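re the bet — no i am not wrong, look at it urself. input seq straight from the record:
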Amino acid sequence: MTTHTDLVPGAPWVELSTSARDWSDADPDVLLQLLGRAQWIRSFEEYVLELAGQGLIHGPAHSSVGQEGGAVGSILPLRSDDFVNGSHRGHHQFIAKAVGHVLQPKPGALPEITPEVHEVFRRTLAEICGLADGFCRGRGGSMHLQWREAGAMGTNAIVGGGVPQAAGFAWNMKHAGTDAVSVTYFGDGAVNIGSVLETFNLAAAWKLPICFFIENNQYAVSTPVAKATAETRLSARGPGFGIPSWRVDGMDALAVYTAMTEAVEHMRAGHGPTIIEADLYRYFHQNGAFPGSAFGYRSKAEEKAWRERDAIDQLRAAVVERGLLTADAVDAAKAEVDAVMAGIGDGLLEPVAGGKPGQRRIRPELWPDTSFVDVGVRGDLAELEGLRFEDQDDFTGELGERRFIDVVSDVMGRRMETDDRIVVMGEDVDGLKGGTNGATKRALELFPGRVLGTPISENAFAGLGGGMALDGRFRPVVEFMYADFMWVAADQLFNQVAKARHMFGGESAVPFVLRSKLAAGTGYGSQHSMDPAGILTTAPGLRVVAPSTPFDYVGLMNTALACDDPVVVLEHVDLYTTTGVGPVDDLDYHLPVGKAAVRREGTDLTVISYLSMVGHCLEALDEVGEVSADLIDLRWLDRASLDWATIEESVRKTNRVLIVEQGAIGTSYGGWLADEIQRRLFDWLDAPVERVTGGEASPSISKVLERAAIAKTDEVVTALRRIAAE
């Protein structure tokens, strides 16, 4: 007979609620702090909505009115060295963390609006208004608030986008030997997103001190939770990943405080991640000052029922009932913060000359200067000053024939010897005696604890690496086994890592290195064979490097690992088994950012290429002897790092250009480069820039169709002969 046995989750899942006795026994100072800080947030948010209604907030105003109890209850147990990040609806958490950093609470009293607290309000409002004195210098606005000093590491406009980064903060905390914790806030709309669930799994597997705080405010814009998921108790996800989980009434600030206190104790003790689901309610629509009922997806009765359970009203009643404050004192505290916000607004605004009565505008002198628009897309490379830069022709060490994959392995091992911040992660990097190609062999031999094999979850581990880099205590080297996998992690790579420095004001270093291999010609088909250079270089925050020789690989990787910008290092599998000139034992030199190599000199034509196609170009030039050409190996591909001096010098000499790349024409890097050359150097060109690329289609598995889809020596020969015949 079939037997059915009930299974028990491996991690606890509890619903925590408070009683009247809990409220009467609660620490008076906890209640006073919860009430005072919640009222500050409410008054701040109401003032933001007032400005938005006057057209003074450019962009959305995602208010958290109604959700204050969850923010103050969860953040009061935290320290300044604990980190938080959140979603586009994150004013409440940001303010709670920021004022918690500057406050020195006085026993028996509501929190005081000190000059430091006033400054938090002023700079937060300035940021939401997009002004130069905001925390992110006006770039972040309402949805991207960051103050690293306070441990507020950034709110995020991509739903669930900040969750993997918070795991990176937690990894750094754990491995830096601290007991600090990371808290990431997201809503019911994010709880079914792949990157969030991937991060649950990764954090549990690695026992990271991170709390996943689910603000279940019942609606993702207008979609109720019950329409989005069959299991509406969102904390039920926790036991499936082995994560202890709490479910609380988010309108009960004391219950949230108690749950977070328990969760923090669990995490500080080294027991791994936690989940807290707080059921609460946003009183207004997704954006702006109208209730959801005005848009037809909520009833007025539902809204009234939630408002009757308002977190601030509950705290006020408890404080007055216990005789901690009079009702008049609470009213006076509310009036004080309302007046403070009005005064801050008066400092940011001025009457509109000739406008309607009461009409105001932002003071013009407070806007960022428009010259600031591109400042901080990337750093100024000052961190590279003082490094030893040597190219092959002036190298002082011993050179010899080296296998390409061996120097890939050796230089990473060497850098991990000299910099204990470097951590390597990716799928199978800790197995197979050095990953699928042997790239991590030396690192594994020397530092197995810093070579982290990950689950198959590029979004999670790429984002975790991004968080590690934003925190800065470690320098992650993330490997995508194939370049095509960048699409799986596109949000973390393009929306998060690439944009972070600029988005948060231009000053935050992001020392993140991504290694990825190109495998066209190896029979791995359409989803493992792309050349991503043309896509990667559209992201202005990324630097992209493409080594074609063993010598270059060492110098370029060393520079990438020293750089405070995110750098993508592209590697072609065709090069791994080749040999070429490289360092015998000196692995400590660097090659400068923005310096190409001229592999051959001539007078008829400028040939520009990168990676394995450089070798194919050399073969083709040997075969077509009637063409005398400069061959430029770009090395650096991104817009900021391209060596225009070398390109221009060659074009002025030859007056003709051929760009050679292997991959598909649709994602071509050469398309952008050809356009740029023709705009910059038109006066020295005797003919349009010509190109060699692969076909339109991605490479197929079939050997003959794959060969037809990509460029190699034969295609370069054909182009050279055509040019020679003209």
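see?? The two ends are 85 Å apart (CA to CA). told u. also Residues 251 and 311 are 5 Å apart (CA to CA). so pay up
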